[in-house]
């Protein structure tokens, strides 16, 4: 359901659809925090939420989903978070945190993600901030 002009937060009723394996909501006007209930979707392989106006803190538990192969959060400038410790059995292949407000150290355990082939962490520095701030 990418770029289909949806607006408002993701409805709690979506939490009942735990069998979903792909969620693509890129380019919609969600303008809300990422729902923590996505971490209960044990079959989730793709979570694509780019350019949705997301804000708040990204739930670390979502990174821990064993079947998750791709997370796309590109362009959610007000979304913050940090990377967790990754387990040895993670299947993450693609991680796109570009143009978000994620911060912190890259954990050594990222080496546990043997299938990881793409990682994008492009950041923007606003004109009123210097790189040392």
From TrEMBL:
Its EC number is 2.7.11.1. It holds the Pfam family LRR_8. One of its GO terms (molecular function) is protein serine/threonine kinase activity. The keyword Transmembrane applies. It is found in: Membrane. Keywords: Glycoprotein, Kinase, Membrane, Receptor, Serine/threonine-protein kinase, Signal, Transferase, Transmembrane, Transmembrane helix. InterPro entries: Leu-rich_rpt, LRR_dom_sf, RLP23-like. SUPFAM superfamilies: L domain-like. The keyword Metal-binding does not apply. It comes from the Eukaryota. It is a single-pass type I membrane protein. GO terms for cellular component: membrane. PANTHER family: LEUCINE-RICH REPEAT RECEPTOR PROTEIN KINASE EMS1-LIKE-RELATED (PTHR48061), RECEPTOR LIKE PROTEIN 30-LIKE (PTHR48061:SF2). This is Putative non-specific serine/threonine protein kinase. It comes from Rosa chinensis (China rose).
């Amino acid at each position: 359901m990418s770029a289909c002009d949806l607006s408002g937060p993701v409805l709690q009723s979506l939490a009942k659809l735990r069998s979903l394996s792909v969620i693509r909501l890129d380019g919609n006007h969600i303008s809300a925090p990422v729902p923590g209930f996505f971490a209960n979707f044990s079959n989730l392989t793709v979570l694509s939420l780019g350019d949705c106006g997301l804000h708040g803190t990204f739930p670390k538990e979502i990174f821990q989903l064993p079947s998750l192969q791709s997370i796309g959060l590109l362009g959610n400038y007000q979304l913050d978070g940090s990377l967790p410790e990754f387990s040895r059995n993670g299947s993450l292949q693609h991680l796109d945190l570009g143009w978000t407000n994620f911060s912190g150290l890259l954990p050594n355990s990222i080496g546990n993600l043997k299938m990881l082939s793409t990682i994008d962490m492009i950041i923007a520095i606003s004109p009123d901030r210097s790189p040392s701030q």
